[in-house]
Design goal:
The chain is of the alpha+beta class. It has one domain. Helices cover 13% and strands 22% of the residues. The chain has a 7-stranded mixed β-sheet with strand order 7-10-11-6-5-12-15. Strands 4-3-2-1-8-9 form a 6-stranded mixed β-sheet, with no helix packed on it. Strand 10 and strand 11 form a beta hairpin. Helix 1 packs antiparallel against helix 6. It is globular.
Length: 367
């Protein structure tokens, strides 16, 4: 018969191991693949997944005289996960398989966008996991020219401070190195790829403490559908949706292509103008398929955040400029800076992966 002390130790070990994830995801899967030639402010090179360099913004892709370097890696362990992973390759595939960018060690989006890492809904990609219970609602939309995910949640569980109105990340940034530096996105949802991984050259991700949206674009108008100059306008303005920011809604829909952001007939809105126009109405959607929730069953997180269910339902994070809404409050074009929530949210994070199982096992032996 095992001793109570031994059983308790085993239970603690189960919880600790589960909290960390797979050790393989803690290191880059370096293959020494070369970077392609690239000149700043010209179209960036694309890669097949198997040909990704160790760092997308490493080697010849570095801009001369740049002091900032890529903090993570792009060749990530497949079918593994770890909450300390520095994988900077994200995915946007389906309602149950997608990633967002978040702080590696806690902190507001404006202070961490350059070093953000991928947090995903599945353990397939060698990234960190979005803890179960974080996502309160998610709406996946497939169109002919782009795919997007939008929703609400409690992102204090990945270290975004409570109340942080957030900002925008994209493959450009103020210096064209991307935000995060070297961050790349793949999708299997581009119809032209026939379900295979496809490198996304134009994408945009808005994040705040309680709201998110990400869009991956392709085709001749990819840059216009994934416009990145409206970085203080937030999710609801850039990616309006009928049900995309509603708690307790988890659904995958087909949709028509929305109008370009900021284009109104013959007029183009410029961020910072005296009058901010209303967002375009959401494009019609159809063939919506609901599910009950999104869960990977590997990591549960609770937070001491003061966020309440009503904040998830209304998603009313206030941006720092007129017209801004949660998931996009910034102060300079091309940079998602915000002064809200400047203190790290890491301290409010309490990871409890499978600890309930460990407790049950312990309790059973003590009976």
């Amino acid at each position: 018969m095992f001793s109570v002390k031994l059983i308790a130790s085993l239970a603690m070990m189960v919880s600790a191991v589960a909290a960390q994830g797979d050790p393989e995801a803690l290191v880059p899967q370096n293959a020494g693949k070369p970077t392609k030639s690239w000149t700043q402010w010209t179209p960036k090179p694309t890669y097949a997944l198997e040909d990704l360099p160790d760092q997308y913004m490493g080697g010849s892709n570095r801009v001369p005289n740049q002091t900032e370097t890529q903090s993570g890696w792009n060749r990530c362990a497949r079918n593994k996960w770890n909450q300390q992973s520095k994988c900077q390759t994200a995915w946007l595939n389906s309602l149950e398989d997608w990633c967002i960018w978040g702080p590696p060690d806690g902190g507001d989006i404006g202070s961490t966008e350059r070093v953000a890492v991928a947090y995903c809904t599945t353990n397939k990609h060698g990234t960190r996991l979005i803890p179960d219970g974080t996502i309160k609602g998610a709406h996946f939309l497939q169109t002919a020219n782009y795919v997007q995910i939008s929703g609400v949640g409690d992102f204090t569980t990945i270290g975004i401070p409570d109340g942080d109105a957030g900002g925008e990340m994209d493959p450009h940034g103020a210096d064209d190195l991307s935000n995060p530096i070297g961050g790349v996105l793949f999708t299997t949802a581009n119809p032209a790829s026939n379900g295979e991984s496809w490198f996304v050259s134009e994408w945009t991700n808005f994040m705040s403490y309680n709201q998110f949206c990400m869009r991956a674009c392709w085709g001749n108008n990819a840059a216009k559908h994934c416009e990145h100059i409206y970085d203080v306008m937030g999710c609801r303005w850039n990616m309006p949706s009928e049900r995309g920011y509603t708690a307790d809604v988890f659904e995958s829909c087909e949709g028509e292509v929305a109008p370009f952001q900021g284009i109104y007939g013959d007029s183009t809105f410029r961020q910072g103008e005296a009058v901010t126009p209303e967002a375009h109405p959401p494009a019609p959607s159809s063939n919506c398929q609901p599910i009950s929730t999104i869960s990977h069953g590997l990591l549960i997180a609770t937070s001491s955040s003061s966020s309440t269910p009503s904040s998830f339902a209304t998603s009313t994070a206030t941006a720092t400029s007129s017209g801004g809404q949660g998931g996009g409050a910034t102060t300079t074009p091309g940079s998602a800076a915000t002064s809200q929530g400047a203190t790290s949210g890491a301290g409010s994070l309490s990871i409890a992966p499978l600890s309930a199982i460990a407790a049950i096992v312990l309790g059973a032996f003590l009976l």
